[in-house]
Automatic annotation (TrEMBL):
Protein name: UDP-glucose 4-epimerase
Highest taxon listed in the record's lineage: Bacteria
EC number: 5.1.3.2
Family: Belongs to the NAD(P)-dependent epimerase/dehydratase family.
Pfam family, one: Epimerase
Assembly notes: Homodimer.
Cofactor(s) named in the record: NAD(+)
NAD in keyword set: yes
Naturally occurring in which organism (per UniProt): Gluconobacter japonicus
Pathway participation: Carbohydrate metabolism; galactose metabolism
Reactions catalysed: UDP-alpha-D-glucose = UDP-alpha-D-galactose
SUPFAM superfamilies: NAD(P)-binding Rossmann-fold domains
CDD domains found in the cross-reference section: UDP_G4E_1_SDR_e (cd05247)
Length: 328
């Protein structure tokens, strides 16, 4: 099969590219490299440095081949930044997604997998773990921008027959077990790589944003999923949308607090993590845990990296081997 991957130079996108290649598929990557890294894309993979805001350029690439599917990862993705710059986030994520989806319908593409988010579920009143049918109440412009694209995909299916899989991630983490790819955001905002850099002495003490949440130890609780397990879910989702569109929440189904993440990194590294308390970040809910029952029942998906320590170990090993990320 031949697949187009937008945002394939980013963290999740680059791991999905590897999963597609490992499965024997042909892959082409489209990315503007605003946050991704050219070095994250295997040299054998054709690459187009294009911004999805440029509709003509986007349409030109999509029209080049007959694609068996498109996987869309390209987006701005920082919750806190979206609160500080809401219109930028809403405009950028919505228009780039809209441009891509329109280009796909014009080119006759029949399958699209969309990188959505658990940030759709930002409201204070909800159950844990969170099923797909939970109330959509984004707690940030970032979450809102992703929901807007889900609605565009609904109409693209209804009117043009573009079947889609909306995959609502919880917290992707870890690195490719073979060391081929890892996490390198600039600036880095994710807890596990920030904690690893702190324990390696590569940055100042870790800042814990809020220790007064209504949780067992006062810190936020999140559902962490290994990025390779997440990539596998995309492959399975492509099979599901042969005949219908689907929506899946993807997580491990277990929550780990920020303090438990620190303890895991201390176990894996054999070192103490320096940390200090900082004020809460706007838009951060206390708890986010996925109910992935539907995904598991319909696709047979099951995480291979079943513990937090396994996830942390791959991230720690990649960071030690690449202390400057893709910069080295």
């Amino acid at each position: 099969m031949r697949y187009l991957v937008t945002g394939g130079a980013g963290f999740v996108g680059s791991h999905v590219v590897l999963a597609l290649l490992d499965a024997g598929h042909e892959v082409v990557v489209l990315d503007n490299l605003s946050t991704g890294h050219r070095e994250a894309i295997p040299q054998s993979v054709p690459f187009h440095q294009i911004d999805l805001m440029d509709y003509d350029a986007t349409r030109s690439v999509v029209a080049q081949h007959k694609w068996d599917g498109v996987l869309h990862f390209a987006a701005l993705s920082l919750v806190g930044e979206s609160v500080r710059a809401p219109f930028h986030y809403l405009r950028q994520n919505y228009l780039t997604g809209l441009n891509l989806i329109q280009a796909c319908t014009e080119a006759g593409v029949k399958k699209l997998v969309f990188s959505s988010t658990s940030a759709l579920f930002g409201g204070p009143e909800r159950s844990e773990p969170i099923p797909e049918a939970a109330l959509i109440e984004p707690g940030s412009p970032y979450g809102e921008s992703k929901f807007l694209i889900e609605r565009v995909l609904h109409w693209a299916d209804s009117i043009y027959g573009l079947r889609s899989a909306c995959l609502r991630y919880f917290n992707a983490a870890g690195a490719d077990a073979e060391g081929r790819a890892g996490e390198d955001h600039r600036p880095e905002t994710h807890l596990i790589p920030l904690t690893i850099d702190a324990v390696l002495g590569r940055r100042p003490p870790l800042k814990l944003f809020g220790t007064d949440y209504p949780t067992s130890d006062g810190s936020c609780v999140r559902d962490y999923i290994h990025v390779t397990d997440l990539a596998d879910a995309h492959i399975l989702a492509l099979e599901q949308i042969e005949t219908r569109s689907v929506t899946y929440n993807i997580g491990d189904g277990r929550g780990y607090s920020n303090f438990e993440v620190i303890q895991s990194i201390e176990r894996v590294s054999g070192r103490k993590v320096p940390w200090e308390v900082a004020p809460r970040r706007q838009g951060d809910p206390a708890v986010l845990i996925a109910d992935s029952t539907t995904l598991q029942k319909e696709t047979g998906w099951k995480p291979k990296f079943g513990t937090l320590d396994q996830i942390v170990e791959t991230a720690f090993r990649w960071r030690k081997a690449h202390p400057d990320g893709y910069g080295d």
